[in-house]
């Protein structure tokens, strides 16, 4: 059977350059080393980690910092002996980190912060670096090269269930797993392993069974994957181009069970938000400029954002994440000076405005709103409740009329949920406060 080239499914991509977005510095002062990773917990607390320490001069230690909406503060005085490459939080907002740091036995490990102190997470240790960690809210998954102490078997994925570590794969991989992602009760993995045809690929674990996701047929290892809510998988990898590797971003389409190529210009996946928009980092221009590239699952188009402040254009975009109100955050180097690093925040909400429900029963206008908007329905509105992105009730009204004015002026900018009940129908719509 003939093997199709990965480029056979290449998509024609429309490019939209948007330079009107402005970026502001988060906190003071900037870091003395690289911000490589970050996370936002359920209470909208912002954490970053990487190779920075505290003070004017780097001391070879790596710390975790938290933004308290005034400046940066140390979290638990971790002080690891190597760069922190991944930080995540579970549903209880415990923090977990992995990277190049080692314990007293000279082994790589995962550290946990429980709100008061850091400690090693269980007895999982490795002579090789732990490549990635993810959580489904309760369990933590780690990828690396581990050895089962009972039978000496090498395995690549371990699972922490809150009390102990267990082996996930049964020796069915032939190389390192460098990227993990959890979505819809499934664990997706990719990296340096190949299928029976010798191609690098993506695998999925669901209900205890492993299966290959389509036929990616990559000729080089997969660097990074993310998965959206309907099972579309994005993969950063490479293909054979005149005898050398060329970077490519591909997307798996579950309806047709095929992979398509979205982009050939060195896209490095960084983040996927709550509305399935995928953000990647690429480089172009002279001098070298960092570009944040946004993809949507509904099309093959992308939008480029040049990340810059008044002090300069960013050349490095390492960590990209989003707070609970829809503002993007990205780490930067050039915008702070050659030997300084920091975090930048977008000037407007990035969540898709077209995610707002258009209802035949109730109407919201204007939306987006500056704070005051009108809610109108076909029937009398018994109740209207406004919730923020964390699920906190912001305002409740009992209009007992078909139209009412709602005022959320003074609330933080971002995305809110409006729940209405007319007695005949209950609806939930999104309101954007700009």
TrEMBL record:
Q: Which residues form the Rax2-like C-terminal domain?
A: 41-174
Name the Pfam families on file. Por_Secre_tail, Rax2
* Keywords attached to this entry: Signal
Origin organism of this chain?
A: Kaistella pullorum
* Record-given protein name: T9SS type A sorting domain-containing protein
Q: Does the keyword Signal apply?
A: yes
Annotated Secretion system C-terminal sorting domain residues = 364-432
The answer, when asked if Lipid biosynthesis is one of the entry's keywords, is no
Q: What NCBIfam families does the record point to?
A: Por_Secre_tail (TIGR04183)
